[in-house]
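Holo prediction — magnesium ion.
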Amino acid sequence: MTNDQLSQDNPVDRHPKITPDPQDQDFPGLDAKLDPKADLGETSYRGTGRLEGRRALITGGDSGIGAATAIAFAREGADVVITHLPDEQPDADKIVELIRAEGRTGVSIPGDVRDRQFNTELVERAIAELGGLDVVVVNAGKQVSRPAITDITDEQFDETVKTNVYGMFWLLKDVVPHLEAGASIILTTSIQAYSPSDHLLDYAMTKGAMNTFGKGLAKQLAPKGIRVNLVAPGPIWTPLQVVEGQPKEKLPKFGVGQPIGRAGQPVELAPAYVFLASAESSYVIGETLNVNGGVDSP
Ligand code: NAD
Ligand code: MG
């Protein structure tokens, strides 16, 4: 395994081909309990000053893709507020510690993005903690696998839409008035937005909605100098997958069907978020950056 994200090596072998045993965790799951451990870039991500002085809010920043992004943002010079569910405090504490180890401000705010009021409070608190916001990453997400449409309860459908779509809408509605020219909004969508799995109907629908919403919002905010972009990950090894995100029997083969032949690690997503957050992507607007190990995307 590499010890620096910028070293030139073979991407096929950069991370191990994992074959996770079927495993279960109660929602929302902990990164600390994943077997094998996910690589969040703790020992490998090296910053190059691309987000010096930026102030970032990352939802679902306690684990998985959001956590790897939080570590990378801090190493690029940003102050970071992460938000997560209260049960995820142990994961959040670790990420806050890593942010602070870079000499940056790191704050964790627990709460539920399905709660309208929490989104309002989150924006107010994040701005109070950091003195403003320049980067907003809408990354909290819910994914529950069910074999048939008749297995999707109305409650599940409601929770998936509340988390992935309403959570996004409420947060953005509250935060956009506070953003200034130069700010960047990044939404985590998914390959599922255009290539839905038969067992992820409700989830895939929400990711399609996010992808479309983000592209429209990008046009609305571009004249103000606020850029909106999206990242569409492929199969990445994170807690969401073992909670109920995949059928258990599929876990040992998670990600092996990608052209690269393995699942991705959260650290492999972080540079996409850094690029879209930083000023170097000034002419990239309404783009969905696919990070999926080689699968076709529109
Ligand atoms: P993860 O479990 O590490 O992160 C998801 C986070 O969402 C949790 O840590 C939790 O803090 C947050 N969350 C969920 N429900 C919430 C709620 N009601 N209130 C507040 N926070 C809530 O898994 P991840 O895979 O890193 O997921 C991050 C994003 O990436 C999600 O939007 C997911 O849909 C997307 N994604 C993941 C994959 C993958 O293969 N792992 C692929 C494509 C897209
Ligand atoms: Mg988590």
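READOUT: The radius of gyration is 18 Å.
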